[in-house]
Each structure stands twice: as C-alpha cells, then as structure tokens.
Amino acid sequence: MKKDTHFYALLAMARSVGIEKEASHKIAYASQFVDDARVNKITLADDNPKAILSEIKKDCGDSEKIINAATCHNYFIVNTFNYGAMINNTTAFHFVPGCDGESFVKKMRCKKESPIIMDILKAALKKDDPIKLGITLHAYADTFSHQGFSGILSKVNDVEEIATSNKIEEDVGLKGFANKLFNQVKYETKDTYLPAYGHGQVFTYPDIPYLDWKYCFDSSNDFSEEYKTTRISNKERFTDAFKEIKKHLQTFLENNSQYRDDSVAEVNENKFFSTLVLKEKEEDRIQSWKEFMIDEELFDEDDELLNYDENMWLKEAFQFFITEDFNDRIVKEVYLEEDFLNSNWYKYYKETQWYKELFFESALENGLIIPNEYINVADFIREEG
C-alpha cells in the first residue's frame, strides 16, 4: 500500500470511528512513517545535554549512537541487500511471514493476518499508545496487499506471466510513460537484473488499490516448477483490510476512551470505500481523501494535521535539521532538541524496537526460527523445551 492508504485512508478511518484528531494523526503518521524511516544509524554529538544522553543509554544501551532505526530502505541500493536489512526492515514491517509450509523459505512467505502480526496487534491494542498501534497497523495492512511474497531474496518471489486487466492511472502522462517503459524493460530482463526480493518482480502492482492483475508462481515445496496462476483483485484486498482495521480501531478506542471524540458524526461508509479504491493517480487519490475528510467534518480545511510531511517528526527531534542529511542511512554528529526524549520520533524509534522483539518472539512461537539480534534464539528454545 502507498501513502494514500497508509496515511490518509487510515487517518480518515481513525477519525470516523471517533478517535480524536491528535491521536488519529499519530496513528496514521506512524503507519506511513514505516515507509519513510530510512535512517538506520545516528551518531550523537558529544556536547549534547548529558541528561538526555544518559536517558538514551538507559533505553538503548549506548549514549553515543542510536542504531537499527530504519523501517524501510531503498531496494535499488545494493548494500541494503543484506540479511539484517531483509529481516529487520523488509520482513518485519512489510512482509510478515505466514509461517505456513515445510521449508524456511515457504514459511517466510507473507500471509494475510498471519499469526505473527495478530500476536503483535493483540498486544498493541491493549496499550495506551497510538504510535505503537500505527506501526503495527502498517504491517497488518501489508499482510493483505503483500500476501504471497517474501521479505527476503527467495525463489518464492520469482514469478512469471505478470499481467493487468485494467489501465494503470500512474502510467498516464510523460512521467507515467517513462515509468511504464522502465517497468517493461525490467520485466523483459528481470531474470538477469531484477532480484527476487519482495514484490519487486511484479513492480508496484500489489500497492495500487484499484488494480486487477495476475501472475504465476511455483507452488511446489521443492521449487520443481509446478506453476499455478493466481488472480488478484486489489479492490477486494484493500476493502477487506480496512473493514478489519475499522474493528481494530474501535477496539483500541474501547480500551482507551480518553481518545474519544464525541463530536464525530457517522460518516458515509460507502463513500469511504469508494474513495479507498478510486481509479486515479496517487496524488489525486490523496486529494480525494482530503476532500472526504473535510466534507465529513473530520477535519477543517486549514487543519495542518490533514497533511503528511515525512520530515515533521525529524524536525521536532533534531536541531539544525537538514533534509539531505537524513536521506542517508547514517547521520553523524547530530544535535538533539531539548525535548528529544518526549519527541514523537524517539517514541516511534522505541516502539519499533518493541515491535521487532515481539515479532521475533512470535515467529519462534509459531515454528519459524529467524536468527536475529533482538532475542537469543537458543535460550528461547531451551526455555520452551
């Protein structure tokens, strides 16, 4: 899914169930930021306030740097094709394994509402934490759209005979034509140049809400080329996802009534779901979401919470913020704002660490052993034994 869904549709749904504006924005922002948090390591300037560095050391075990902060990366940068990035970012947040099958690679295939994501979601819904919920709902939504693919380099992702049955609005115009040509070149040379990583071999098809498409995959346990065709309606997948997300948001509100906004009237649900799968370019879908929320009186037209700025939380947390610095994987000698420890970025960082620890624990409990740096797999197995 893309920004129109992870942020705007989720923002609209959170407000529509009666969650107040600030909490709704935190849920939706955290959800979209999972796709934008590219910085993985931040080294801290020595002359930051000692009290802040001391608290960071308590939380992270180190007062000189913050590590493992990224929840996404650029799939076209070769040095991100490493085991740590694949399991800590791609798998954990975008392709949660379904734990089905006989082999490790089959178990790693993403599955709608996999037992792992349901364990994490159950825990998040019990907490008074909109950011924690937003992170989890991103991964939960992606289990609907990314099902069938894996977050590691794998034969699972090596597919054939990709086709769509309707025009892709993103392909319209000069930029769209260039993207379409690029995708065609990628497809014709994919076995040579395009790694079987995530849903890369089917481009962005899983993330386009109105698309009908199909592909062939190897259904055998030993990859002996027993190909089957799967036909997909993204309209159905996205609609099913948000019907369930609505229930989960209602549960969160029942458990955390302090976030309730009694002024919210019942919204037009049919209009919501038609907006969700609108056959338009992404920027036009975003504009339609803004109009929906204004028309339904969920936000005022000039409300700043109605817009997504991927740098907003970064600017609040770090002094002397320069966008270009934070486009890299590593940012050096950073100065922290006085209120850094209470910043939404730092809260987001801490909740991603909570999420990953629970992710690896649940994987083990569901029969999937993923070596990682968050939990000691050997100790866990001995305790279970």
Give an overview in words:
The protein has 385 residues and is mainly alpha-helical. Helices cover 47% and strands 8% of the residues. It has helices spanning 3-16, 21-33, 50-60, 83-94, 104-107, 115-125, 130-145, 173-188, 190-193, 234-255, 269-276, 282-295, 312-317, 344-365, 377-384, and strands at 41-44, 65-67, 160-164, 212-218, 227-233, 330-334. It has a 3-stranded mixed β-sheet, with no helix packed on it. Strand 4 and strand 5 form a beta hairpin. The longest helix is centred in the middle third of the chain and has 22 residues, at 234-255. The two termini are 39 Å apart.
Keywords, separated by commas or semicolons:
mainly alpha, 6 strands, 47% helix, globular
Question: Secondary structure elements and their pairing?
Answer:
Blueprint: H1 3-16, H2 21-33, E1 41-44, H3 50-60, E2 65-67, H4 83-94, H5 104-107, H6 115-125, H7 130-145, E3 160-164, H8 173-188, H9 190-193, E4 212-218, E5 227-233, H10 234-255, H11 269-276, H12 282-295, H13 312-317, E6 330-334, H14 344-365, H15 377-384
Parallel strand pairs: 1-6
Antiparallel strand pairs: 1-2, 3-4, 4-5
- Termini separation comes to 39 Å
- Report the portion of residues in β strands: 5-15%
Number of helices: 15
Structural class: mainly alpha
In short:
The chain is mainly α. The model has no long low-confidence stretch (mean pLDDT 91).
